[in-house]
Amino acid sequence: MNQIVNDPDYVVEDMLKGFIKANGNLIAATKDDKVLKYVNTPIKEKVGIVTGGGSGHKPAFIGYIGENMCDAVAVGQIFSSPTAKSFYNAMVEADAGRGVACLYGNYAGDNMNVKMAIRRAEKDGITVKTVVANDDCASAPKTEREKRRGVAGEVLMWKVGGAKAAMGADLDAVIAAAQKAIDNTRSVGVGVAPCTIPAVGHANFEIADGTMEVGIGHHGEPGVKVEKLKTADEIAQEMLDIILPDLPFVAGDEVVVLLSGLGATPVMEQYIVYNRVEEILKENGILVYKAYVGNYFTSLDMKGVTLTVMKLDKELKECIDMPADSTGLKQR
Amino acid sequence: MNQIVNDPDYVVEDMLKGFIKANGNLIAATKDDKVLKYVNTPIKEKVGIVTGGGSGHKPAFIGYIGENMCDAVAVGQIFSSPTAKSFYNAMVEADAGRGVACLYGNYAGDNMNVKMAIRRAEKDGITVKTVVANDDCASAPKTEREKRRGVAGEVLMWKVGGAKAAMGADLDAVIAAAQKAIDNTRSVGVGVAPCTIPAVGHANFEIADGTMEVGIGHHGEPGVKVEKLKTADEIAQEMLDIILPDLPFVAGDEVVVLLSGLGATPVMEQYIVYNRVEEILKENGILVYKAYVGNYFTSLDMKGVTLTVMKLDKELKECIDMPADSTGLKQR
Amino acid sequence: MIKDKEAGFVVIDLVKVIRDNKDFLSEIDGKIGDGDHGINMNKGFTLCEEKLKGKEFGLSEGLSALSETLQEDIGGSMGPLYGAFFGEMAFAAKEVISPEVFGEMLGNGIAAIEDIGSAKRGDKTLLDTLLPAKEAYHAALEAGKDFAEALEALKKAALDGWKSTENMIARIGRASRLGERSKGVLDAGATSCYLLLTSMAQSFQRLL
Amino acid sequence: MIKDKEAGFVVIDLVKVIRDNKDFLSEIDGKIGDGDHGINMNKGFTLCEEKLKGKEFGLSEGLSALSETLQEDIGGSMGPLYGAFFGEMAFAAKEVISPEVFGEMLGNGIAAIEDIGSAKRGDKTLLDTLLPAKEAYHAALEAGKDFAEALEALKKAALDGWKSTENMIARIGRASRLGERSKGVLDAGATSCYLLLTSMAQSFQRLL
Ligand SMILES: Nc1ncnc2c1ncn2[C@@H]1O[C@H](COP(=O)(O)OP(=O)(O)O)[C@@H](O)[C@H]1O
Ligand SMILES: Nc1ncnc2c1ncn2[C@@H]1O[C@H](COP(=O)(O)OP(=O)(O)O)[C@@H](O)[C@H]1O
Ligand SMILES: [Mg+2]
Ligand SMILES: [Mg+2]
Ligand SMILES: [Mg+2]
Ligand SMILES: [Mg+2]
Hints:
Radius of gyration of chain C: 16 Å
Strand order of the largest sheet of chain C: 1-2
Number of domains of chain C: 1
CATH architecture of chain C: Alpha Horseshoe
CATH superfamily of chain C: DhaL domain
CATH class of chain C: Mainly Alpha
Bound molecules: adenosine-5'-diphosphate, magnesium ion
Oligomer: heterotetramer
């Protein structure tokens, strides 16, 4: 599959340069070329929101830098955790004296690098607390939730954490809200065509024509099963069959739904799936309070969708309702 | 290539249902199931903005329904003009007594259907004037601009027309602004992988691995040449070599740049191209006043990018600066 | 003698010929267009068939239904063009479809296409099938041929007209931006039009 | 006798072995991981080589540079893990690298990996290459073997340890979500680790 790049080993660097150029109203570079921040960060009296992760997931992670969202983001190579140094630098950039909430996804590399970054930040007197997103139901049984990957649910975690911090909450309250957001969130992905890491130059896994991979990870990690390609309606059903019993979501719940394409999925197909998702939720007595449909968390040029559902309470609703301004999520 | 659909003959219908469900805060259905409108339309004292076109270009066209953008949109089948009836119904929905500006792209079907719709609307006493976008440099020589296709430049035409109408301008002023917008706008597309109409089930054209098609149309219309796949930087140069001399854009100009993916292009690749686009413009003394990078006007699952540049004057700047709220373009 | 109210099946035959050639039409359109001609046409014609199902209808009612469906439900280029074509044909039909009546139906239908689409002969469109077909039909009648023979002449000219589009440069529609590159392939609209005219002539011939 | 300041080339040999096996490492990682192990490693090791270019450096300086580059510029899992490993090795090096000194370097490096990654033997990671290699090395020395022989034992054990990952179920890292499906393929980290240990042992052997 043709890719539009320069040196495949420097796609991240090239992308960052373009991203900074195009979004000067929102995004500022920092002295670490792998750390970007919101132009107004650090924001007085506000808990800093930091995240970071491997690249290839646009708009994640840098697309969620902005007003009432993330303050600073550490950027890794394609599908590879940022360095401890960059996580540390992001924490320093985001800190305004009230501490930093580092909200990231559950991947071995990120866990290690964040841990090392926190050690350094604490030596500087910066308090950092973490929430580790693990919303991907398909990545481990419910009994081993601590092993589950973080996927598109991270967007809702940032939205909630970012809003809570913007309301003036202290670090513990921000962490508690973001943790509640992710605890109330479940996701699953379905892949119908693989992705290609530019420097590798060919897909490292296959999804045969006419088949789909249920539970696929955001880096192409194999899912729980390979099946015959189903219709959009059936895929909606299959994803909800995994998600709904896991929390569980029950009649009377109000939820946010985030349906994301994986990079090469036309938005038309995403809406076709969403149509049935909302119908099924309704049939189960579950009310969609707000829906996000689009490319919110991708995997290079993978084709497929992830479905994320978050159960709301009053606090989460307030956070979801808060306006936000970032390249990936704008809301009034 | 696997697609996530139900009945391939009803993808448009299914998508519309999902789109309405997901975006109830912005979008209202009408009695014509192929016409959607902004929830607050008709807006008192405001010229109505109507557009429409074939489907498969999401967020275009329905994604540009919203505040200070389009009021009502007629929806066609995949890559096929809406019916005259739907264009007419959209005009009726959008009219608030001050007339309707129908801002659409230069395609045979759209031209015919709009013409017939206007005849009907005029019988109802609704004044409709049109601007026909023809920003695609590659689709005909400059001497035959009236033959050129409308492509992603339509987004800027709607932004300008929508803003002007929201400012309270009368129909002639709205039409003049939208016409100026498109007259000041040039686009070109480069395709690196073809698209597949779901009901056809296979790509109707080929782009061999390692090659690219310069000047490709939004429906896969062949471009001006097929070349060896170039680097992102070279592609930026090639697109600007076509666009800049055509208006021409010259040193001292201020411009809006819109770089859109064609559906299956990772946003990362788009930013890699944008990086060089802005550099080249700068080298030519041209200042980027505002940049839009993302999937603004797509062609199903085609892979590639379109580059659009609009030269600004004071009026266009005011219109571009105006806040907007639609699913495809949100701006504060 | 062809009676309007006995010739409703002619429209059903039109639906069939489009359905049978759906993929072929898309394939041709794919070469210099966007590859959807067969889909668009088939969707409209099938929808019309559904509307007519279980009903009694004559030729003009059938053509009217086809025209309405194309115009109201299909859009694209074919909605207005074929919509107007069949609409005018229906309007010009009489209780008895004499050779002269059919000639007028054809003429009015073609005039509507020219009016809406402003294409000319040689622009590589369905007119390049229609115009020679109409002319051959009238010439045959004037030369004293009977209805069936005139229809045979129409078929022959439609075929030649259709084939002639292969070497034309498209000057209107999607393909017109291709210039020289549009040469060497048949026009999609001319193809469907050839199929439709031939089917209609054949259906009529069965009644004669 | 191996002098630290004469053994800088050992690090350059490490860079070479990673570069030569870049695609192989990615391929293995692609089976149950995300297919980038070779890229990540090669990027880090090549960057280190560039930093060292034109400089005079000994073993500990070379390993320090490698550690720093991995930690500061590479990230991923390998940045912290190999970063700490080579960092501790550099720190434990002495002017003369005796068999005992090398044993301590290895031990401290491994301890750092265990500390940061909290993986255990049998979890299908690079520790499954490292731990048996270390044990065999010490056992050989205790059995009275000389440095070169002990390194030979290390190489053999590293090979066996690497191969043993094929039948393990991954219990940590990206592949751990696969459960039974992670069986039947080698671990990527264990593979690069086998290559690195073997290269290092061979380079040392050339000095003995
Ligand atoms: N203005 C016109 N007048 C007559 N025929 C036209 C005109 N524009 C297009 N056509 C015909 O339309 C055909 C294409 O139809 P179709 O593929 O259904 O529509 P679209 O081009 O919108 O995809 C062409 O092959 C040509 O014969
Ligand atoms: N916690 C850990 N401790 C030790 N080794 C680990 C750990 N997590 C992962 N690994 C090793 O990392 C290897 C994968 O490395 P790499 O592909 O570079 O990183 P990533 O998994 O982030 O893409 C695995 O094969 C495994 O040997
Ligand atoms: Mg990785
Ligand atoms: Mg079409
Ligand atoms: Mg077509
Ligand atoms: Mg990996």
